[in-house]
Amino acid sequence: MISRSSKDKIIRFIFFGIATFSILIISFIFLFLFSRAYPAIEEFGTGLLSNDWSVARREFGLFPALYGSVFVAVGALFVSVPLGLGAAIYLSEIASNRVRMILKPMIELLAGIPSIVYGFIGAILLGRFLYDTYNMRGVNSFFAAMLVLGVMALPIIISLSDDAMKSVPKDMKDASLALGATKWQTIRNVTIPGAISGISSAVIMGMGRAIGETMAVMLIIGSVMRMPVPFFDIFDTGHTLTALIAVQMGESHGIIINVLFTAGVMLFTIVAIMSIISDILQTRTKQKYEGKR
Amino acid sequence: MLAKIREFIKDETKCERIDLPENTKMRVQDFDLWYDDTQALKSVDMDVEEYKVTAIIGPSGCGKSTLIRSLNRMNDTIPSVRTEGKVWLDGYNVYDEVTDCVDIRRKVGMVFQKPNPFPFSIEDNVFYGCEVNGMDMDKEKKVKKCLKDAALWEEVNDRLDENALSLSGGQQQRLCIARALATEPEVILMDEPCSALDPIATAKIEDLIDELKNHYTVVIVTHNMQQAARVSDYTAYMYLGELIEFGDTTQIFENPQENSTEKYITGRFG
């Protein structure tokens, strides 16, 4: 018979081991990523941030892909934030329980659709439609990618924003209504500000999804390694970091592999920055509700 | 433009109305309320007299909070609630189709069981009701007046821009009262306003209620019988969703007519 305190110790030890192990694995991924990227950084330096990409001339400017990743993700937000926030407000504040019980799982189901399916629909249906109807330059464009990524980011934005708004205490909403505020005034003045950290982190998660998305984007964006001209032309084609890695990986060797790893480092950095911002927002609101300023 | 549409939609002359006796501010008439299939209020009849304090007492789950929330239609926020019967305010039916909840709640303010200030500054909390109701007034003056009326001014006048959640529980509750006063209501509903407070904070709120009844009609739900006896002019005793007895507070406490009332106030159950 083991004593209770040593049992506790063993359990603590096991969980400590598990936690350490997962952290170790992640650290090794970091290390590996950076170490494989390093030769390229050493050789090309800031050249990696230039606009020129040519395998023949050994120029590996990743900027068009970096720009494309951010551009397409920001564009996707213009689709997913208004739609997502609107749907979340409806779900959490307006819909009856029954409607909510049907809609919420359906929306979450959307998140489970494989991204290649979105990409396929985007390329075959949307791209084709845009090309035929609006006389576009080609089937592929940032615009089509933004629409598809916007829809792909919807479930995460709706679901997390809905949770955030649901978690604003009913006390507070009641207080507002009892003071003669209308439902809409209450949503605008109490519910949304109260849930703003959750909503912002939902938006950031959605953006992370858009930046990290590969398959769908690869099929629609055009995979052309140059800047759109002019740089804000959403109907031009381009590239993203993820698509670049996927497209080039199979036929690359030597230093190009290291360049692709650098693209990975860039992606990793963007996503890390976003999750730090999301963390800061969370803590801020928590402090607000605890009475600190 | 919006105001015009509002005027057009809301035709107050169509609202059902009766003449209430003088001094009667509100009347609850044959009022039933269900949560889904559970009946929480059973044909309640009660009058609320103007510039008096009416207390509602009774054991937990007797429907006293449900009743007070019916007076300003706060139960509308709960989807499963269904009501029958009428509540009159100045002779107008609160539950009439054409009645706007927003107007009712502006006239009938409410203070909740748990202090629930918004996570805004103290002054923004007080001014919130004025802002959402589009009342155009000097914010500074208004805030000062309401805080004074709620006996909180002395304690917070040097930190009006601080987050309201940094106040103590008792201060927060008085802030909620100040906030309710800001929309210039005629009736103030208090749903166990002291249950989360210590005795000193409770005494302050009770003093405040005494002050308030000079200008407002007050309805208070309390599970504390001494408190009902101290602050109220009229007392209603409820049990299992029914209003068992209603009358002068002195009469209810000294000479209850119903057996159940007597048992409750002498502490034999509840």
Major β-sheet strand ordering of chain A: 1-2
Rough shape of chain A? Answer: globular
Estimate percent helicity of chain A: over 70%
Number of helices of chain A: 10
Q: What are the secondary-structure elements of chain B, in order, as H or E?
A: HEEEHEEHEHHHHEHEHEEHH
Order of helices and strands of chain A: HEEHHHHHHHHH
**What is the molecular shape of chain B?**
globular
Average pLDDT confidence of chain B is 88
- The tally of strands of chain A reads 2
The total of helices of chain B stands at: 11
What is the CATH class of the domain at 15-117 and 187-265 in chain B? Answer: Alpha Beta
Strand content of chain A: under 5%
What layout of secondary structure does this protein have?
The complex is a heterodimer of chains A (293) and B (270).
Chain A: H1 4-44, E1 53-54, E2 59-60, H2 63-94, H3 97-110, H4 115-134, H5 142-166, H6 170-178, H7 183-212, H8 215-220, H9 241-249, H10 255-289
Antiparallel strand pairs in A: 1-2
Helix pairs in contact in A: 1-10, 2-5, 2-7, 2-9, 3-5, 4-5, 5-7, 6-7, 7-10, 9-10
Chain B: H1 2-9, E1 24-35, E2 38-49, E3 53-57, H2 64-71, E4 81-89, E5 92-93, H3 101-107, E6 108-111, H4 122-132, H5 139-149, H6 153-156, H7 169-181, E7 187-191, H8 199-212, E8 217-221, H9 225-231, E9 234-239, E10 242-248, H10 249-254, H11 259-265
Parallel strand pairs in B: 3-8, 3-9, 6-7, 7-8
Antiparallel strand pairs in B: 1-2, 1-4, 4-5, 9-10
Helix pairs in contact in B: 4-7, 5-7, 7-8
